[in-house]
Amino acid sequence: MQPIDQYETAEPTESSLLTRVGPGMAVVDSAGDDAGKVSAVQLPGTDVRPDTVVGLAEVLMGSGYLRVDGTGALSNDTYASGDDIADVIDGEPGTVRLRVRRDELPRSAS
After folding, report:
1. DSSP-assigned letter for residue 62
2. Cα separation of 24 and 26, whole Å?
């Protein structure tokens, strides 16, 4: 449990940012480029294994992750860990801003 910060000066943690993410939210990378839309969110410690390579899948399960439906005709879906989230902007549909570029995100195996 996090301490109460009556002055709201504490930096949000990645896992608290992940709890604010929902399907349908827009995703932009660190350069401000469109990375797609959130199709699924799994909180840290999930038993839901992402469709990616062994080793990386377990890391994502531990940190929590979101699946991003890619943009463009030839794109694959990608995964962003809770640690990759820089900010979440609430709204309709809301926006997830990442700390990394889209091409740095691991791709789905299918």
Report:
1. H
2. 6
| DSSP E strand stretches across the chain | 26-28, 34-42, 65-69, 78-81, 85-89, 95-98
**Taking Cα atoms as reference points, which of 93, 37, 90 lies closest to residue 67?**
37
Tokens representing 92 are 């309709």
Q: For residue 45, how far is the Cα from the chain centroid?
A: 15
What does the pLDDT look like over 8-31, one tens digit per residue?
433 444 457 999 999 999 999 999
pTM of the model: 0.80
Place of tokens 């699946």: 67
- Reading the block at residue 87, the tokens are 């900010």
Residues 6+ positions from 83 with CB-CB distance below 8 Å: 14, 63, 99
105 contacts 68 by C-beta, under 8 angstroms: yes
> What would the pLDDT profile of 48-80 be if each residue is shown by its tens digit?
999 999 999 999 999 999 999 976 655 679 999
Compute the distance between CA of residue 12 and CA of residue 9 in angstroms, rounded to an integer: 9
